Known about the structure:
Blueprint: H1 7-37, H2 39-43, H3 49-80, H4 83-101, H5 107-110, H6 113-141, H7 149-177, H8 180-187, H9 189-206, H10 213-221, H11 228-235, H12 237-246, H13 248-267, H14 273-300, H15 303-325, H16 330-348, H17 351-354, H18 364-381, H19 383-394, H20 397-414
Helix pairs in contact: 1-3, 1-4, 1-6, 1-7, 1-9, 1-13, 3-4, 3-6, 3-18, 3-19, 4-6, 4-9, 6-7, 6-18, 7-14, 12-18, 12-20, 13-14, 13-16, 13-18, 13-19, 13-20, 14-15, 14-16, 15-16, 15-20, 19-20
Amino acid sequence: MSVKSGAPSARRVLGASLVGTAVEFYDFYIYATAASLVFGPMFFPAASPAMQLLSSYATMAVAFFARPLGAIVFGHFGDRIGRKSTLVASLLMMGGSTVAISFLPSYEQAGWFAPALLCLLRFGQGFGLGGEWGGAALLAVENAPPGWRARYGMFPQLGAPVGFIAANGLFLILGVLLTPEQFLAWGWRLPFLGSALLVAVGLWVRLKLTETPAFAKAVAEEKPSEVPLAELFKRHLVPTVAGTFAVVACFAVFYIATAFALGYGTTVLNYGREAFLGVQLGAIGFMALGIVLAGWWSDASTPRRVLIFGCFMAVAVGALMAPMMTNGTLLSCWAFLSLALLTMGFVYGPLGAFLPGLFPARVRYTGSSMAFNVGGIIGGGLTPVIAQAISTTGGLVPVGVYLGVAALISLVALMPLKHQQA
Length: 422
């Protein structure tokens, strides 16, 4: 069965899953970019640049600890009342928090009240994203025809490179059009303010959706779970824990190749901000390529097999990080980031089909969201902070080792899941 045979309904479903996550990830990525470039001197007291960057990266971690709470809340209602309304609520939560960041005062203007507000809104971003990915993945795979689960499931994943291109592209344009003083004074706020338009587009698409067939069937056959989280831990603990650790490599690869690499490249390697943003922008296409290849391969074999291959790739990326990043040329940095983000496609692309396949429909929203977001804490919550800290004393070699260990953790976690896929 081809995608075309789904007619307008298939296009609407896939478009909604992609557009929604593109908006969400745009919001998330502009924060990561601003944290690497602006938030240190803007929201924290004057100190060494390294300490300001560490403090800025620490605010990123707030969202990761909010995401499991969002997964619990949105997963609860997604499994009880449906996917559509829950996805709309998650989009509003994250979009509203992002727009509010554009109006924050600086540390000079408000003292410690400024970073406190920043952390609060970062929590709102993470809370919203906690319910976003799982719902978007279910929207795609629960509407997929037989044999197309992974290819449908890759569309929410493709929202990641789309959002990244929009975020970094806009920061790159602002860096070219504005002076450094203008950018620091007010230019960085424009991408956050512009999120309002993107959220409006996402809402317009999602409000036209209907419930997924899998959820409608589950509700028709039996009463929804009273407490999906409790049922998840009581009856599906092994796939929840293993699925959580299977996600670790994905987040470690991404945040080292984006947030950490941008901060390290501009502060330690002394490349210009616009130049390094351009390099990252030129490499992100490889992430999209990896996601597409992984989606097709997953349907031809299994998502688990593709994830295992991606973990071995991530170990190799960790070994190559120091020699390629410190080669002395932007071309070598681009080659490394391209390889890393291609690898990201193989450890991220299959997750849209893999994680929902671990759970029955009645607790699928909660299970997928919890595994994805708790795995995000382990793999990415503190990764930029840890990578920045160990690189100040040991350079990039220990950062590469850190990435390799994260990949091995996911590899081990995938082992007991051979027969778990639905």
